[in-house]
Amino acid sequence: MNNMPDNNENIPTSKKKHGANKLECYDWLSDLPESHNETDLVEVQFKNTRKGYYKNSTHIHLEKGDIVAVEGNPGHDIGEVTLTGRLVLLQMKKNGIKLDNPDLKRVYRKAKPNDLEKYEEAKSREHDTMLRARKIAEDLNLDMKIGDVEYQGDGNKAIFYYIADDRVDFRQLIKVLAEVFRVRIEMKQIGARQEAGRIGGIGPCGRQLCCSSWMTNFVSVATSAARYQDISLNPQKLAGQCAKLKCCLNFEVDAYVEGQKKLPSREIALETADNTYYHFKTDIFKRQMTYSTSKEIAANLVTVDASRVFEVIALNKRGIKPDKLELVDDQQPQRKDFEDVVGQDSLTRFDKNKKRGGNNANGGKSNNRRKKSNLKKGNGGDASGAAQNNSSQNGNRGNNNRNGNNNNGKNNNNRPSEEVSPE
Question: How many CB atoms lie within 10 A of CB 57?
């Protein structure tokens, strides 16, 4: 047997990641071992917003989580393997990358400790490089903002991500940056939403920003999405951290549009015998509409069900004006409010059961004690009661005897005296 030590012992093969990663794809074919050997292509991720597909031409055994050195331009880059096997082919087809693309780069090797040291050193310089680059752009009077800097794994190249409203001539900036940092410079323009996704943060809902946690495709958002949902057109509340309209305005707008189609038009005024009512606001999901007697202000507001609105509109078309907009109390349908029959919404539903059990247990013990004490008291009471009965019976007998004697005496006294006649 060969007892020589393995030269790849100290090479790190995995990296644990914590938190959400919007570029991560769930490997639902991981339970099929044969699917990992169908192709030599692998997916490698570098940052939360950048990943690529590389060819494993040297047939290195790679698994998800391995840190590898891949071909760069120039030099090499350091990234993490996120997908292998058949799922890589599906992802490439989804992203529109051809399998026979000659521009596909190669995987060199698994990252060595020396490669990781260079990578960590280059990564530690990114923040300072960004601050100095912002100062240089300001001195050159360029209308742009440098939002992020990413160094290549070997430290020979730096990518500068910037935001600009108009086209910027940064040729002089590239020359100055190359002289200052002594690396190859690449400039990439991104939008405000992409910048917010790279920086990250917490939204007004209290959760991590969608653009930094899971969103990859950014669809344009219009103020009409807020109008469909009856949201106040306040720019401060509608704008996100990127100073653009919040992406979440598009999440539920389709449900509101579909619900609005089942309601009567807001432009129709309702005629009654006493007033003319104009639309004020609508609760789409409750199917309730509120009307006012004035177009400008909220006056004499009346909230009715959508079915009643349809009924009044049909009556107005026939030239009939109802007495009142709202239904009479006898005609109003009874609404069934939500009732917690099972008790699942109570936060203390389990505590009550415990208290009941504890009370039953304690109550049972105390009841047993009471029963025992009552039995003792009952026995003592029975004995004393028996003694009292005996004594009372004896007393009664004595009284009866006395009464008998007295009665006898009375009877003797009451008898007529017999006179003896002399013979």
Answer: 13
Tens of pLDDT, residues 143-184: 999 988 999 999 899 999 999 988 889 899 999 999 999 999
Helix intervals (H) in 250-328: 253-261, 306-317
Residue indicated by tokens 């389990």:
350
In the structure encoding, which two tokens stand for residue 385, read together?
């009661």
Summarised one tens digit per residue, pLDDT across range 178-209 is 999 999 999 999 988 888 888 888 998 999 99
Q: Which of 35, 54, 51 is nearest to 101 (CA)?
A: 54
Nearest to 70 by CA among 114, 104, 97, 20: 104
- b/e map 380-390, b = 16+ CB within 10 Å: eeeeeeeeeee
Give the distance from CA 172 to its chain's centroid. Answer: 48
Q: Which amino acid, one-letter code, is at 207? A: R
- What DSSP designation does 239 have? B
Tokens coding 117: 């040291």
d(CA 257, CA 251): 12
Question: Quick check: helix, strand or coil at residue 212?
Answer: helix
pTM of the model: 0.61
Tokens of 139: 């001195």
CA atoms within 13 A on the CB side of 122: 23
Contact 287, 306 (CB under 8 A): yes
Cis peptide before 235 (omega within 30 of 0): no
